[in-house]
Amino acid sequence: MAAQFEYDESGGTSLYFLVSFYALVLFPVTYYLWPSKPKKDDPQKLKKQCQCDPCEIKRAILQAQKPTQRLRHAFKWLFLFGAWALFIYLAIQASQVERDHIEYDPYDILELDRGASQAEIKRKYRLLTKTKHPDKGGDPVEFIRIAKAYAALTNDESRENWEKFGNPDGPTATSFGIALPAWIVDQNNSILVLGIYGLAFMVILPIAVGTWWYRSIRYSAVEVLLDTSQLFLHFIYKTPCLNLKRALMILSGSFEFEEKHNNEIVLRPSDNEELPPLMREFDSEYGKKSKEKPFVYPYSRKARILLYAHLARTDLPPDTLEVDKRYIINKCPQLIQEMVNTASQLVTWKNYGRVAKEPRLESIEFLMRQSPMIVQACWDKAPLLQLPHFTEDTLRKKRHIKTLGQFVKMKDVDRRNILRHLHEKQYQDIMNVLKSLPRLDADVELEVLADDDKKTITAGSLVTATVTLRRGTFQVSEQEVNGAIEAVEEVEETHEEEKTDSPLPHKPKTHVWEKHRKKKGKGGGGGPKHKPNKKAATKKAAPATAATGKAAEDSPQHNGKGAANHVSNNTKGAIQDIAVSKDSGDSGSESDNEQEDNSKNSGSEDNLSSDGGEQEEEEWERLQSGITRKEKVLEGTSKVSHEVHAPYFPEVKQEWWWIYLADRKTHRIVTLPQMVYDLVDEKDVELKFPAPHKGLYQYQLCVRSDSYLDVDYIKTIKVDVKEAKKMEETHPQWDISDDEEKEEGDSDVSDYTTDDEGSDEE
Fold it and tell me: Where is the composition biased (Low complexity) (predicted)?
C-alpha cells in the first residue's frame, strides 16, 4: 500500500503549526523586549546627592534623554501587546478547528444504538431505502454510505474488516497530512510563493548573516575595533617604557575616532575655527607635533586636544566640540581596558619567547591611570579635584594638602577653615562624596592546590593566590579618631620596653602642616602640647595592624590616606596586636616545645588516621568550593557595583578594579591584570602564577581603580619558595633486591629440574 500525502485544505493542521512556531519566537522576544520597571530613587540617596553645578548639569542631560527612553518603552509595550493579541487570536482559532478524521461507525450512519439486533438493523435499512434510494430522489453518495454500513453489520467479511481496520472495505492507503495550506502549491500562486522564498532566503537571510559576521570580525571581545587593537599592540611593543603623555597619544589614535572606521563620527566645518585656539592653549601639555602615523592625522589631533581640554575642564562650544568630546570620553574606558589587555598579551608572549621585549610594570600602570583621570576629568597629581566645589585656586592656597588621605586626617575644624569660602550646603556635599569614596582592604592566602602540602611553595609549582577583597568607605568622624588615639596611646605606655625592641618602623618625618600646628600650640591658641605625641602613637600603632611593614606604608589606610580613620575603626585590633607582640617573645620557647611533642606523637596510628580524615575533609571542601566557583562562572558576571561620583563623565559609571601581583624589583607583573566588576562588599579573586626559583621574594598585591584617583590598594606579600622535590629515578615496584632475585632463581631451578637430572649430578 502506497503512502498518500495530503495538504491541509481546511487550514486546521497549518494553524496548529503556525501557533507552535509563533510561540517559539514570541516567548524569547517577550523576555528580551520586556521593559524594565524604573527603579525609585532611595530618599536617603537623594538626600546625600551632590548638588554641585557639574552634577546638576549631568543630571539634566540624563533627564533630557528620558523622554526618548519613555517613547521606546511605549513602543515596546505596544509591540508586545499586538504580538500577544495575535497569538491569543490564533490559539482560539486553532482550538475551534473541527477534526477532519472521524472514526467510521456504521451504527451512527444507520442511526441505531449499539447492540441492536439483526431484525432491527434490517428494519432500519428498509426504512432508509424507501427515502434515501436514488430512485426515490435520494442522494447517491449518502445511499452508498448507508449500504456500506448495512453490509458492515450483516456481512461477516465486511464486519471483520471493520473490526480490524476500521473500514468495511479492508486496509486502505496510509495518508499523511502536511501542515501547509493547499494554496501554497497551487499553480496560480507559484510566482508569489517563489518570490517570497527568494526574498527571505536569498536576500534577507544573507544580508543579516553577512552584517553579523562583518561586525563580529571587526570587533574584539570588549567591543573595540581589531584595527585599534593592532594599533595598540604596535605602539606598546615599540615603546615598552612609555609615560602618561605617550599613553594619551596612543589612546587618541584609536580608529573609533575616525570617520572611515566609525559612521557615528561627524565631520564639522566649524572645527577649522574652533580647534586652533585650543591647540595654542594646550601647547605646553600637547608638546611637539608627532610625526608618527596616525598621530599626525586630523582625527587623532582633534581627539588628543579634546582629551586635554577634558582634563583641564575647559568649556567648549555646546553644539559642536562638546558633543564630540562627550562621545570620545564615553568610549575611553573600553579603549583603555583594551590597551591593558594588549599589554598583558605582550607579557604572555614574552614568557613564551614569541617577542623580544615586554612593557614594563610602570608602563602598564600608566595605561591604567588614564581611566580614573578621564572619568574624573583631572590629572593624577590633583586627586582632590574629584571632590565637588574644589578648584585650582583652592589647591594653590593649601599646597601642603595634596592627597585624599591628608584631607581625611585633618580635624573637622581645620577642614572647615580651609573651605571657609564655601556655604554649609556646599561643604556638606564635599563630606558626603568623601564618605562615599571606596577604601579597600584585602587578605591573601597562597596555596599550591596540586600538591598534598598546599602551604609549601616549591620552585616550578603553580601557586594560587586567593585574594579576599573588602570594600569600605572613608570615615571622617573626629571623635572616633581621638578616642582611638587615646586608647592606643595607653597601650603603648604600658609596653615601653616591648616598643623599643619591636621591629616597628621609625617615627616618620613630621609634615609641614603638623609643624604649623605645633607652633600654634606653643602660642597658646592651639590644642594641647601632647597632641603630636598622639599622632606619633597613631602612626606607630597603625603598622601593627597591617600584614607587613611595607603593606602599612603602601595601603590607602596607612599611606597618609586615612591612618587615623583606620585606627578609629580598628582600635581593638590594634590593642590585641600590640599585646600579642609583647607576649610573643615569652611564649616562643613554649610553642617550640609543644611543636616538638606534637611531632613525636604524630607517628602513632591514631594520629595517622585522624590526619588522613582531616586531609580527606579538606580535599572534599576544596572540591566543593571549586564546583561552586565554576557554577558562579557559568552564571555570568554582574557589572553593577557602586555608582561613581563622576560629574564630568557623560554616562553613569560603575566602580571597576584591576587586580594583579607585581614585582617592583624586576619591574614586571607576576599575574596578568584581572578586571573585577562586581565588588559590592566582599569578593574572592584567584590569581595564579608559576613559582620562581628557590629564594625569598617580595611581591605586591595591587588593586587599582578605573574610576577614582588616590584610592588604590597596595600590599606587600612575602613568598618563600623552597627547592623543588627531586623525582625518584626508579619506580618503587620496579626496584627488586638481590635477595628477591636469588629466591626467584632458586624457584626457577626447582620448577624445571627433573629427578633424572638430579641423579646424574649425584
Answer: 539-550
